[in-house]
């Protein structure tokens, strides 16, 4: 009788047992050959949940025979890292698998990274987040390769399920199970490329099936019922959940009310109200933006109400906000403008702030050359308020343009103001 979950028991023990990921660990890949020849490089494994990051790390450890330690960066502390360092000093080399590596804090890094650089610790990190965005550059620079794993194909999952049913040591080979190839194919196609989910589903399916004369018999009706359930709900933190959030945003952006409500209903059934309300608030500024600037405050009110009410009542203010966003005028100009400014900040030297914009609220500022600022409110321009022609950007960026108006909804009025202010430049007395 096994106590561990089936998905845990069926982890590959060597790289020859890994299913799928031929582009990474196939027999002819450089990584496979390196490990077989006794060299294990530090790696970053990147990909969706359930596609084999942890399994691959365990398989590499089993093949290399290196002392193996597994930590999760979300709960590991400095002492845990220090223990890894001590082990490396005692044994000469340690293979450290660090899950959720994007959560690795600076204190942990300072303790560990010199030993990774010296080679006494081989680091295999795993993350579901884009390592170029979310993993610290200090870690990335010490990992020889960033390996992106792919979602497993139905044929890979079918192979895994068949192997599990035959394996007498770790799997279900000692059980008498009546399940057809067609039923296994349905499981393989219904779990969205997730090996862990495939094995967990098989385990649950067998537990729910009837047993006759010591034989477990899998019925099509039960299989279909369970598959429909996981297809609808998915995993709260899995890839299907993020696909639903993406589909919701793209449906609102495309002004399709019915599709947006359909995906909202699925997300609310999953039960992650926080993720839904957060995404809706982002959408109100990213996709509606300046075309209907009041929508953001109304979506905030709706999401706050939803959080206070909880389900099932939360669906009402959220549906109201979704419909309003679908039918609102849309502009992404503000979102694109801040990204353009950020891109310039990273790609060009930081410009010097003009002297007339610098702080003058202290004695001695004039001696530093600060001053000369002209107060715009002192020169009214029609009903706009005040405006004066003076430079605000650094000299090196004086001709940069980040904001491009979109003539939609309320932003049409703003675009006209923006264009008129641009026409004033170079004029001493604009009217």
From TrEMBL:
Domain AAA+ ATPase: 39-151
InterPro entries named among the record's database cross-references: AAA+_ATPase, AAA_assoc_2, AAA_ATPase_RarA/MGS1/WRNIP1, ATPase_AAA_core, DNA_pol3_clamp-load_cplx_C, MgsA_C, P-loop_NTPase
SUPFAM superfamilies in the cross-refs: P-loop containing nucleoside triphosphate hydrolases, post-AAA+ oligomerization domain-like
Keywords linked to the UniProt accession: ATP-binding, Nucleotide-binding
ATP-binding listed as a keyword: yes
Keyword ATP-binding: yes
Family as reported in the entry's similarity comment: Belongs to the AAA ATPase family. RarA/MGS1/WRNIP1 subfamily.
Protein name (record): Recombinase RarA
């Amino acid at each position: 009788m096994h106590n561990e979950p089936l998905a845990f028991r069926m982890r590959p023990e060597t790289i020859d047992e890994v299913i799928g990921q031929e582009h990474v660990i196939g027999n002819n890949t450089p990584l496979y050959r390196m490990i077989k020849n006794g060299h294990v490089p530090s790696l970053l494994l990147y990909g969706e949940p359930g596609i084999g990051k942890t399994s691959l790390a365990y398989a590499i450890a089993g093949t290399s025979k290196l002392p193996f330690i597994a930590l999760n960066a979300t709960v590991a502390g400095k002492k845990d890292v220090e223990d890894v360092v001590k082990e490396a000093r005692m044994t000469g080399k340690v293979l450290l698998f660090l899950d959720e590596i994007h959560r690795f804090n600076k204190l942990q890094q300072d303790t560990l990274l010199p030993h990774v650089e010296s080679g006494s610790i081989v680091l295999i990190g795993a993350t579901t987040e884009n390592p170029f965005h979310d993993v610290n550059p200090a870690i990335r620079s010490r990992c020889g390769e960033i390996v992106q794993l792919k979602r497993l194909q139905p044929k890979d999952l079918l192979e895994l399920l068949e192997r599990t049913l035959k394996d007498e040591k770790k799997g279900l080979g000692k059980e008498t199970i009546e399940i057809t190839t067609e039923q296994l194919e349905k499981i393989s196609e219904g779990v969205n490329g997730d090996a862990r989910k495939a094995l967990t589903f098989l385990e649950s399916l067998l537990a729910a099936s009837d047993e006759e004369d010591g034989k477990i018999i899998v019925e099509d009706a039960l299989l279909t019922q369970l598959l429909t359930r996981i297809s609808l709900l998915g995993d709260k933190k899995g890839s299907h959940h993020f696909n639903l959030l993406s589909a919701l945003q793209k449906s609102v952006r495309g002004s399709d009310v019915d599709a947006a409500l359909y995906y909202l209903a699925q997300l609310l059934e999953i039960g992650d109200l926080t993720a839904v309300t957060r995404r809706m608030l982002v959408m109100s500024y990213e996709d509606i933006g300046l075309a209907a600037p009041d929508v953001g405050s109304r979506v905030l009110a709706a999401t706050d109400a939803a959080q206070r009410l909880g389900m099932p009542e939360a669906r009402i203010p959220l549906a109201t906000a979704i419909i309003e966003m679908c039918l609102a005028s849309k502009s992404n100009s503000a979102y694109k403008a801040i990204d353009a400014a950020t891109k310039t900040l990273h790609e060009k030297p930081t410009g010097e702030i003009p002297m007339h914009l610098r702080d003058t609220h202290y004695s001695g500022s004039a001696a530093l050359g600060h001053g000369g600022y002209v107060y715009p409110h002192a020169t009214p321009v029609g009903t706009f308020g005040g405006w004066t022609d003076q430079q605000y950007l650094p000299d090196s960026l004086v001709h940069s343009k980040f904001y491009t108006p979109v003539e939609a909804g309320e932003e049409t009025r703003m675009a006209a103001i923006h264009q008129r202010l641009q026409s004033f430049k170079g004029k001493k007395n604009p009217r």
